[in-house]
Design a protein that fits this description.
38% of the residues lie in helices and 13% in strands. By secondary structure, it is α+β, with helices and mostly antiparallel strands. The N and C termini lie far apart (44 Å).
């Protein structure tokens, strides 16, 4: 576990044993290295493989670290979207851990991060089929009936796109440090070009290859979708734009390649253009222009990275991976400006 992020095992163990039948002995606890937002731990009991999620210490956006909301969304989605982990218990008693947390059943499998896990290889044909599955699962999610899932009150109604632009703009200003640009012209362009919502459906808001779990016997088969902290009701095209911001191609520049956290550079992987075309074909959606969604996705990613750096800048986390995150703000601003200019 990272220094300062150790999990107090004794109180968590006692709390879990009062809620999950069959737990015995002390768990083996490890921390997942992936992810830069919520802290995630694996608790291995004899016969029970569990995952605990909790918010980070320090400054945090409540909507992005609401453990109760994340738990309830996944529990509601379970019956209609079978790729959601099984929810087991939620705790809002600060006496246990000092914060809210929840525990779910671990989904066994492989997660395709920047470096492929041991035992996983993707030839061009397999990589392409994985991309097809990745898009199909997103289309499946966007077809979920929110009312049937009991999630019709999750969103705030029409105007999602405009609320997101305004919300992320405000978050950037709040997290801005002296060494990053203002994004003023990018924000002005986004506000002037907000489209009407293409639809309102359940969206993941952080759908990436490193947030899916693959079947070890068939790595083109997705068996789980993780990290639902930002899920809501919103515009599905903005969900796709968010995914595209993380999709680094083999021919991208050095800075983009340095940010890669999923194996999207491998031969056979779809390009960003191909990914969008496939989604639009499978979903039947026809946006008047795609540029807004791609610029929005990059700006939103810039804000997320800056929020993480803000915590490091103010010594609320000491994770050394965050030390140079501020350098990405001017880079993402440059990418946004190029897209706006049509380059």
């Amino acid at each position: 576990m990272r220094p300062g992020e150790e999990l107090p095992v004794a109180p968590v163990d006692a709390w879990l044993k009062g809620r999950i039948a069959g737990l015995s002995g002390s768990p083996r606890v490890t921390q997942y290295a992936g992810g830069a937002s919520n802290w995630t731990y694996r608790l291995e009991y004899e016969g029970h493989d569990l995952v605990l999620r909790r918010p980070p210490a320090g400054t945090k956006a409540k909507s992005a670290h609401d453990m109760g909301r994340e738990y309830r969304v996944q529990k509601a989605l379970g019956p209609v979207f079978p790729w959601v982990p099984e929810m087991l218990a939620f705790c809002d008693d600060p006496a246990v851990l000092g914060c809210d947390f929840y525990v779910m059943r671990r989904i066994p499998g492989l997660i395709p991060r920047g470096r492929l896990p041991r035992g996983l290889s993707l030839d061009p044909s397999t990589a392409r089929r994985l991309c097809l599955s990745f898009v199909e699962r997103l289309v499946d999610l966007h077809r979920v009936d929110p009312a049937a899932a009991g999630l019709d009150a999750l969103g705030k109604g029409a105007g999602y796109a405009r609320r997101q632009v305004e919300g992320w703009s405000a978050r950037y200003e709040k997290a801005r440090t002296w060494n990053v640009p203002s994004f003023r012209d990018v924000v002005a362009w986004l506000k002037a070009n907000v489209p009407d919502d293409s639809a309102t459906c359940v969206i993941h808001n952080d759908y990436r290859l490193d947030n899916v779990v693959l079947d070890p016997e068939d790595p083109t088969r997705i068996v789980g979708v993780l990290d639902w902290e930002m899920a809501t009701l919103g515009d599905p095209l903005m969900d796709l734009g968010n995914s595209l911001a993380y999709w680094v191609e083999a021919g991208d520049d050095f800075v983009a390649r340095s940010t890669r956290r999923q194996p999207t550079h491998l031969p056979g992987m779809l390009t960003r253009r191909e990914l969008v075309a496939l989604y639009l074909e499978r979903s039947g959606r026809r946006p008047a222009s795609w540029t807004f969604y791609e610029v929005y996705g990059l700006f939103r990613l810039a804000v997320i990275v800056q929020q993480i750096y803000y915590r490091y800048h103010h010594r609320e986390t000491r994770n050394p991976e965050f030390r140079r995150f501020w350098l990405l703000a001017p880079y993402f601003q440059w990418r946004c400006r190029r897209l706006i200019r049509g380059r």
